[in-house]
UniProtKB/TrEMBL annotation, chain A:
UniProt source species: Scleropages formosus (Asian bonytongue)
Main location: cytoplasm
Pfam families membership: WD40 (PF00400)
Protein known as: Dynein axonemal intermediate chain 2
A molecular function (GO) term: dynein heavy chain binding
Family: Belongs to the dynein intermediate chain family.
Automatic annotation (TrEMBL), chain B:
GO MF term list: dynein intermediate chain binding
PANTHER family named in the record: DYNEIN LIGHT CHAIN ROADBLOCK (PTHR10779)
Descriptive protein name: Dynein light chain roadblock
Gene responsible for this protein: DYNLRB1
Keyword field contains Transport: yes
Keyword tRNA processing appears in the UniProt entry: no
Family: Belongs to the GAMAD family.
InterPro entries assigned: DYNLRB1/2, Roadblock/LAMTOR2_dom
A GO CC term assigned to this protein in UniProt: cytoplasmic dynein complex
Key words of the record: Cytoplasm, Cytoskeleton, Dynein, Microtubule, Motor protein, Transport
UniProt function note: Acts as one of several non-catalytic accessory components of the cytoplasmic dynein 1 complex that are thought to be involved in linking dynein to cargos and to adapter proteins that regulate dynein function. Cytoplasmic dynein 1 acts as a motor for the intracellular retrograde motility of vesicles and organelles along microtubules.
Roadblock/LAMTOR2 domain: residues covered: 9-97
Length: 631, 101
């Protein structure tokens, strides 16, 4: 059936405005159900209908703006005095008091209260209601219980952000020596020549209770790279700045440095580390920088250093050959020795009291592939020290110079700083470039950190543990210093910990000694064999292959291979955009060094791992970003 | 009669003071004015101001919980010492004691 509606309008009425009017409803079409159609359908019984009985909710996220709060105190003055008595006037107050004392009501009240009070006092004196019985047992039980249940954890307590617009790296932190309520943070931009123009040079001292505003601003001439409180005098701070000068501040005198070292006699590169020395006057310190010198200073006379040491391994005081230092170590219990960590990956141990400069450098420890950012002796066992460099942290024993006795695995991110826990001999902390803080306990687990906490998204560049071992501060690349509290499990000494740690360290040291002895034997054998073969053969391999030769050869080979690989890669690099993979082979005299490569993860830098074979220890490190080859 | 009473009051306070561990006694009136004290002025004023408010609050708490009830004694035990307050309608007697250990 067709439903049609027809409406008629005269032509002359086209275009007229419409006048609407009401009229009753008219039935135009009525469709009745067709019984025939019903037969094609089947009734469904029962019907499943879903109904929801939950209220409608929606999820919202709100991020509040940073709320600046300030602590203020109100000082109450005496009040409550009746109108005619002036609280400032002693006479009037005394008179008032005497009047009250004569009041009978007062006396009766006091008598009553007095008896009541005496009863309580005597109660207190009679027995201590809070006395702990079986204290030792309780402690043991508690300890075991906490060990079993408690997971090591670190909690962020406070975050101190750089108040300036232009963010700089928090390159060094130092805790206040007494009471640890203050933290001095040095800010600088460590990227070479990338410091923005309007970067502020200030460094701050923060009170840990107040993260909104720094307590004191230090205004140096050039940004500070390292900063240390004087352990003897908590008002004095020593800072090493980016331009090589050293300056010291007295917090009582404000933000300007009290004195700065003369620029002609200072370092020529940023001063990466300053340390206070143990001395009677408490004014001695020494500093080091990448210009290859270690300078000793007396802060009373900053115009020139008291002593100078050039880190030249050939002992000729040649600045050009000197190793460039990035960290320094000094332990007050061993005042004559100190250690320097270099950019080349060597730790140089030196003796302060040597007569000639040549004798100052005692020995070196090699084993790292990159600059040693942190160097610290174990506060309980000074014979063992920790170094943090490249992708690993290593523990060394002073006697074994060839390699470390314990080391962590190679991580995915560069390790930037590390330190021992001052309360537990087997615990140390490290921070990485991916913003994680790791706590390692080598008695508990050797392969992995006991605790790994992601503190922030940017790289963490510095770390300092407070003397009580409980609080830790770490500084990041954007200038944020985060204060973390570690769970008691990681900062209370366990039973027998000292003995266990010594035992473990000694065992590892013994192992290394045995390995070293074997290596030496093998080397001797080889040498005697190669000497024989050299005598037999008349042909010699170019005598001394110079460094330049090697480098040129290596470069040529490298570029050849890179090009070959790139061509191959372009073919199969269609859907993935992951990274490059490069394989490299370097020829070096008789031996081949196989270098396996890490895939470029973040386009920051590619570095090549290397295996060093027994015998030749020739290492070539390639850092693509800086295009620097070092042997 | 009055002088006897005065002497007795003095004696009571002296006795309390001489008990083991007692560090100080303060008597304050209902408005918080210290009447008598064995501590120095600044501490006295501080204790008087703070404890007066505390007692008022405690008393109102007790009475809110049960209107028939009233505060008879207040002891605040802290790590370093114990502050005992005996309140009355018009005066408070405060004693600071170092507990027996």
């Amino acid at each position: 059936m067709e439903i049609v509606y027809v409406y008629v309008k005269k032509r002359s009425e086209f275009g007229r405005p419409c006048y609407f009017s009401d009229r009753p409803a008219e039935l135009h079409a009525d469709l009745l159900p067709d019984a025939a159609l019903a037969a094609t359908f089947l009734a469904r019984d029962p019907c499943d209908v879903g109904a929801q009985c939950a209220p409608d909710v929606s999820e919202h996220e709100v991020n509040t703006e940073r709320f600046e709060s300030e602590s203020r105190g109100i000082n109450h003055v005496e009040g409550g005095w009746p109108k005619d008595v002036n609280p400032q006037e002693m006479e009037q107050t005394i008179r008032f008091r005497k009047k009250v004392e004569k009041d009978e009501n007062y006396m009766n009240t006091i008598m009553q209260l007095g008896t009541l009070m005496e009863h309580s006092i005597k109660q207190n004196n009679a027995i201590d209601i809070y006395q702990e019985y079986f204290e030792e047992e309780d402690e043991e039980d508690e300890e075991e219980v906490t060990d079993a249940k408690e997971q090591p954890a670190a909690k962020t307590i406070n975050v101190f952000r750089d108040p300036n617009e232009v963010k700089r790296t928090a390159s060094s932190l130092s805790w206040h020596p007494d009471g640890n309520h203050k933290l001095a943070v040095a800010y600088s931009c460590l990227e070479f020549q990338r410091a923005p123009k309007d970067m502020s040079f200030d460094s701050y001292i923060w009170d840990i209770e107040n993260p909104n505003r720094p307590e004191l601003t230090l205004k140096p001439v050039s940004p500070l790279v390292s900063l240390e409180y004087n352990p003897k005098d908590s008002h004095i701070l020593l800072g090493g700045s980016y331009n090589g000068q050293i300056a010291y501040w007295d917090t009582r005198k404000g933000g300007q440095p009290v004195e700065m070292s003369a620029i002609e006699h200072s370092h020529r590169d940023p001063v990466y580390k300053v340390i206070w020395l143990q001395s009677k006057t408490g004014t001695d310190a020494f500093s080091t920088s990448t210009d290859g010198q270690v300078l000793w200073w007396d802060i009373r006379k900053m115009s020139e250093p008291t002593e100078r040491l050039v880190l030249d391994l050939s002992r000729k005081e040649n600045l050009e050959n000197a190793l460039t230092a990035v960290s320094l170590e000094f332990e007050p219990t061993m005042p004559t020795k100190f250690m320097v960590g270099t950019e080349q990956g060597l730790v140089v141990s030196c003796n302060r009291k040597a007569k000639t400069p040549a004798e100052k450098i005692v020995c070196t420890y090699s084993g790292h592939h990159g600059p040693i950012y942190a160097l610290q002796r174990n506060p309980f066992f000074p014979k063992y020290f920790l170094t943090v460099a490249d992708w690993t942290a290593r523990i060394w024993s002073e006697d074994i110079k060839e390699s470390s006795i314990m080391w962590t695995k190679y991580h995915m991110a560069y390790l930037m700083d590390g330190c021992w826990s001052p309360v537990r001999p087997s615990v140390f902390f490290t921070v990485k470039m991916d913003g994680t803080l790791d706590a390692w306990d080598f008695l508990f687990k050797r392969n992995d950190p006991t605790l790994s906490v992601k503190v922030c998204d940017e790289a963490l560049c510095s770390l300092r543990v407070q003397d009580n071992g409980r609080l830790l501060a770490c500084g990041s690349q954007l200038g944020t210093a985060t204060l973390l509290e570690i769970s008691p499990g990681l900062c209370t000494m366990q039973r027998n910990e000292k003995t266990l740690a010594t035992a473990m360290a000694e065992r590892e040291a013994k192992r290394e000694k045995i390995l070293e002895a074997r290596q030496r034997e093998m080397r001797l054998k080889e040498r005697s064999r190669s000497e024989q073969s050299k005598e037999d053969e008349s042909r010699e391999l170019d005598g001394e292959v110079t460094t330049e030769d090697l480098v040129a050869r290596a470069e040529k080979d490298f570029f050849q291979i890179v090009e070959a690989e790139l061509k191959k890669m372009e073919k199969d690099k269609e859907d993935e955009k992951v990274g490059w993979k490069m394989c490299c082979k370097l020829l070096d005299q008789n031996h081949t060094l196989n270098l396996t490569v890490v895939s470029l993860a973040e386009l920051r830098s590619t570095s090549l791992f290397w295996h060093h074979l027994v015998g030749q220890v020739s290492m070539v490190t390639l850092d693509l970003n800086e295009l620097r080859w070092s042997h | 009669m009055q002088s006897d009473l005065i002497a007795e009051v003095e004696e009571t306070l002296k006795r309390i003071q001489s008990q083991k561990g007692v560090q100080g006694i303060i008597i304050i009136n209902a408005e918080g004015i210290p009447i008598k004290s064995t501590l120095d002025n600044s501490s006295t004023v501080q204790y008087a101001g703070l404890l007066h408010q505390l007692v008022m609050k405690t008393r109102s708490t007790v009475r809110d919980l049960d209107p028939q009830n009233d505060l008879t004694f207040l002891r605040v035990r802290s790590k370093k010492n114990e502050i005992m307050i005996a309140p009355d309608k018009d005066y408070f007697l405060i004693v600071i004691q170092n507990p027996s250990d």
